[in-house]
Amino acid sequence: MDPKGRILLPAKLKSMMPNGTDIKIVLQLGFKKCLNILTAQEWAAIQKRFRESGNYNSQKQQLFRDMTFGMEEQTLDAQGRFSLNKFQTDYAGLGSDVLLFGMSNKIEIWNKETFMQTLTPLNDRESLEALAEAFLDQPFTP
Question: Rounded to two decimals, what is the model's pTM?
């Protein structure tokens, strides 16, 4: 992250974005101490799911409020950069050394040390086998 709070989206992660020159993104506070980057299309799909599931469930309303608090829509600049504001950088504990991590439908922005603390310790990676079996060995049902 540069001193102005701008981050250049690496080419590999930029490939997750739609093609074109007017690339709109949504910056969102993550459930963990990170930020999420969603495409405008992904955010629209999430909003649609909220709309289609009714308006009167108080837990759903709270989740929507929490998901949209601190959210910001931006357009990547010509160099493929976006800016973070002070609230966002403070929430995620970000400094100049940030880590961008591509998930299937979003990109996470982490403080590198915080991210490393979220990983399973190297001496306990055998425990991942049961998780992989539970989630990845199941037939895909859309």
Answer: 0.84
